[in-house]
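Bumping with the actual sequence this time:
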Amino acid sequence: MSAQRKPTPASPSPAGPPVAPEKSEGPRPGRLTAAAVISGLEGLALLAGGIAMIALGAGDGDVRSSVTGGLTLLVLALLPLTAARGLLARRSWSRGPAVITQLLALPVAYSLLQVDSVAIWAGILLGAAAVVGLVLLVHPATAQALGVRGPGGE
């Protein structure tokens, strides 16, 4: 019997980095897939909005602001699209950008609800998608599927 402790698979080895939490193997949970779809659809909507803003703004007198706004939407679309791809690939880092996307969508949905036009329906749809997306992303099964540790490293 030696005096040295042998590291167990669940504990970090003394010479190396801590062992990453284990992702549950097997099929991807439906909640995770649904959250990825919601995030991806939001990203595609931002892409479509950016392209439309550039295309429709080219005929207006203020081309510079239309192009700037459109490019901004195109760049913003990268966050939910990257998060959706990461969620589908079960990357633990992807939950953060996905949650940020849903939190940013809530005030946008609220502002769409304040106008008197067809945008009210877009606000209802966006608000519902953001709430459902948040619920799916904070569910413990999603965290387990992504290998995200709980508070205190549990």
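The tokens above came from a reply further down the thread. The radius of gyration is 21 Å.
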